[in-house]
Structure formats: structure tokens, C-alpha cells
Amino acid sequence: MLALSLALIAVLIAANALYVAAEFAAVSVRRSRLETDVDRGDRLARTVLRQIDTPARLDDFVAACQVGITLSSLALGAVGQALIAPQVAPWLAALGPVDTVAAHSIAAVAVLVALTALQMVLGELMPKSLALHAPTRTARWLAFPMLWSSRLLGGFVKILNGSGRFILRTLGHPAIGHAHVHSPEELEVLVAESGQSGVFARQESLSLRRALEMRRRKARHLMTPRPRVHSIDGDLPPDELARAVLEGPYTRYPVYRGDRENVIGILHSRELAARVLAGEPLAPIDDLLRPVVAVPETMSSERMLGAMRHEKALQLVVLDELGGLAGIVSASDLLRDVLGHVPEDFGGTPVAPERLPDGSLRLPGRLPVDRAARWTGTPWPYDVDSVAGAVLAVLDHLPGEGEGLEIAGGRAEVERVEQHTVVSIVWRSVAGGADG
């Protein structure tokens, strides 16, 4: 009798573990991974995807798991009280000076505590850890058991879910189903934790974090500032204009007329070269110019990317608060901010820090101070946006190349200055190395 009771307890704990693992696997599994397996003809992946491919189905799936967990837990307690406690009570009565009633009470409590601990470890914590560690594999293993359970408990689940939604609507709250949705802040935490646990390589983790930060990055952080924009005077004689464009190092140039701030369009060297090779007249060039898309310097990277996509533009003209030209942002600037480095498009300066062999850091002048702080491991308490701005704030004058200064808890040397702009500095911690 005792052996049969123990076997029944083992079955109930296993059932509880199945439903716990299925629930955590369902809400953790990556749908894109399942779709890839389905494309390869994986039958189990197709079965899992059918059960969780919409929020409503996922909600029913989770509800079925919860019902299964509740029923198995109740059954486990009932079996313990009805079958195990009566068999343990005589042993307790024989061991100590307690009467039969007290022995049954003690046995009931002891069995309940023991079964609860056993169920927590074997039926809750272990299957949850396994499911979170390998959600796709767990979901595939449990695909058919959960399919049968969902069909068996389907009517009960619909009654419970319907009752819950009715109560929520009565209280004035919308019924929100389960879905694989995370806020940007939650995604940042997930990416950081995944990077620390080795799921992502360091560069992959940095790229993902930069992509999530796009909504906070502004045009003024990424633009090539006006003094460093290589623009072309649209009033130049055709031959001089063509020579300046075709012999220049860039593929795209902003074209202005009169004042440099009066940008009338963007000229692609390839289109001008095609006209030259075809022997067509160079003037006028207005029909070769792509329209200017102007954005404020406070626009986020995320919105700038949307503007480029909507306007089919690869460059944006950035305007300051007075409507004057502040700089130019190219598609490569946005990509470089996320990926760290891409081939130069036109006039952009890399904004990715570089660790030098001696442990020091090369920090681009355009690097935002918040990112500089992560690389140096020290605060940058300056009311500016960029490293170049911080240098000017500390020195209170335009530095020359090779000039030294103390900044952000370390020693720095101005490495490059071009057109009244600090292009890069080399930073060293006071201890002789760089953290970050």
C-alpha cells in the first residue's frame, strides 16, 4: 500500500513539473526560432507554434498549465492526507508518548510539509530552471502532452478565462492576454544579463544596447558639425564643380548657393560621373540634386531613421534652434553609432572609442559624454553633450594638438584638431590604465 501511495505521489509531482516547465517554456521560447524549425520540417516545433502563435492561444495555453498545476497540487495534498498520513501515524505513536489523535495530527502536518517541500523542489524549481535554460527544447518535448492536456481541459479553461475577463471588464479593466512583449527598459536589462551570462559576445551586446538607446540619441550627438561638412558651391563653373566632386574622397556632397547654410540639395558623385561619361552638358546640375530633408538637432536617432526610410534619403540636414545649419547626419552615422564602425560614407568621423596597446583610450570628440563615462569608468560632470564640449569646458579655449589636460578623473592629451573642432583625445586614468 505504501509503495502504491509513493508511486502515485511521484506521478502527481511529475505532472506538476510538466505543467510548470510547459508554462515557462511557452512564455520564454523565441517564436523566430520555432518558425525556423518549422521551415526545416520540424513537426514538434509546428505543434508548439500552433498552440502559442497568438496572444489568445498563448493565454489559453498558460491557463491550461495553471489548471494542471492546481489540480495536481490539490491531488497531491489529498493523497498525502488520505493515504500517507494514516500509515505514518502508528509509527509516531509507537515512537513517543502521544495518543492516537495527536499522532494523526502530527503525521498530517509532517506529511504536508514534506510533500510541499518535495513538490517545490522537484515540481516547481527544477522544471522552471530547465525550461528557462532551454525553452525551445523543453517546449518541443512537451508539445504533444500539452496538446492532449489542452484538449482535455479546454472547456474548463474557457469557463475560467471567460469568468476572469468578465470580472475585469466589470471592474473597468481591459482583459490583457499573455504575449511575448517587453518594454524597452526590460529589453535593456535582458540584453545586459544575456551579455553577462555569455549568451551574446561583448560586441553583440554593445550593438544591441546601442540600438535600444536610439530613442535617446539626438541628431546633435551624431551629426558631422557644420565646420567639418565638405560641401560644394553650386555656383561654381561646371568644370570646376565636376572636378571638385569627382576628385574628392566622398560619394555624396551637400550643395549650397550663396551662403553655406543655404543647402539646396545633395549631389551623388556617381550620377555626375555618369553624365560626364555620357558626354552630356554638365550644367545645370539642379536635376541631379536630391531633395534636402531637414530635421531639428533634438530629433532622436530612431525618428531620424524613420525619416530616412520615409523620404528615401541617405543624408539629413540638421538645423539648430534658430533654423541655421548645424550639421549633416548620414545613414552611415546612424549605423556607426549602433555597430561601432562602418565604411565612411561622406565626411563622417568615427564615434567609436578605441583601446590603445598601452591601456589608454582614444575618445572621438563627437562621442557623447554618457558613453565616454562607460568606457572610462569615471563620471563626466560637464554640462555638455560630447567629449569635445567637455574639453572646451575644462580648458575654456580651443586647444592645440598635443595639449594636455585633466578631465573626468584622468589625464588626457588632445590628439587631433581640425577646423576649430577637437576631433579626438587620448585619455589615461590617473592609475596609468583605462577602465571600461
What does this structure look like?
There is one protein chain. The strands form three sheets. The protein has a five-stranded antiparallel beta sheet with strand order 8-9-12-11-10, covered by helices on one side. Strands 1-7-6-5 form a four-stranded mixed beta sheet. It has 436 residues and is an alpha+beta fold. The longest helix has 41 residues, at 55-95. Strand 10 (404-407) and strand 11 (410-418) form a beta hairpin. It has helices spanning 2-28, 31-39, 43-52, 55-95, 100-133, 135-141, 143-170, 184-196, 202-212, 219-222, 238-246, 269-277, 301-311, 331-339, 369-376, 387-395; strands spanning 224-225, 232-233, 252-256, 263-268, 294-296, 315-319, 325-330, 354-355, 361-364, 404-407, 410-418, 421-429. The protein contains 16 helices and twelve strands. 55% of the residues lie in helices and 13% in strands. The protein folds into four domains: 2-170, no CATH class; 184-214, no CATH class; 218-339, Roll (CBS-domain); 354-429, Uridine Diphospho-n-acetylenolpyruvylglucosamine Reductase, domain 3 (2-Layer Sandwich).
Biggest sheet statistics: 5 strands, antiparallel
Describe the global form: elongated
Uncertain segments of ≥5 residues (pLDDT<50)?
342-349, 432-436
Helix content: 40-55%
Q: Give the C-alpha Rg.
A: 33 Å
- Could you spell the SSE succession in H and E letters? HHHHHHHHHHEEHEEHEHEEHEEHHEEE
Please indicate the percent range of residues in DSSP E strands (runs of 2 or more): 5-15%
- In order across it, which strands form the biggest sheet? 8-9-12-11-10
The quaternary state of the protein chains shown equals: single chain
Structural class: alpha+beta
Terminus-to-terminus distance = 65 Å
The total count of helices amounts to: 16
- Give the total of beta strands: 12
**Domain module tally:** 4
